[in-house]
Amino acid sequence: MALLRVRHCRALLYCRRAPPARCPACGGDLRAAGLAAAPVRLPCPFRHGHGQPRAFLIRPTRGTFLHGYDGHSDLHVGITNSQGVVYNYDQEGVHRAGSGWEQCISIPLVQPDMSELLQQWDDLLEEFSLEEAWLPHRYEEQQHNCYTFALAFVNRVRQGRGREPLSKAQFTERFLIPHTREASRYLTLHRELAHSDCYVVPLPEQEQDSGAGNDTLLE
Prior knowledge:
Layout: E1 3-8, E2 11-15, E3 40-42, E4 55-60, E5 75-80, E6 86-90, E7 93-97, E8 105-108, H1 115-129, H2 146-160, H3 168-192, E9 198-202, H4 205-210
Antiparallel strand pairs: 1-2, 1-3, 2-9, 4-5, 4-8, 5-6, 6-7
């Protein structure tokens, strides 16, 4: 579900539908503000995982991000093949899921110009998933889990291309945090707008003075 953002009177206004004629923060006429106060669409950061080939997916272990996720519950991760089947690992071993990942954070792993890897991806993923390391009895909630499986596959592919493996911290910082931060901002807005038609975020003083620059954290 897309949200709308309007910038007006030293504030950012967020809403689910076209904003009211008058600004809820100052009472001014939004229509008279022209293009400066035109609504900007904020797309939903969540994707249908089975439509995201060759990607690293993140979803809540239970429920979905927009329904039931409190920001602290456990997350589950997986890797898709070229057809959107999600390979994921838990205490029952490796699953090849054709459903259940309809609302995810998706991180593409393969660039369009990597023709050889595009062709090899499915075979590499299937062969990797059959290794003894991913048998059910090897699962350990803290040290050998779904994240271990997904990152190990990413590093296997990287090493095959002559690249250094990434630590969990490196992968998290470089690839996951930018996406999860965006999702967290969106979820904050989603929760606020569940109880009101408009959510007002005051701009920092420096932006009030300059009238330019980057938007606030809840962009």
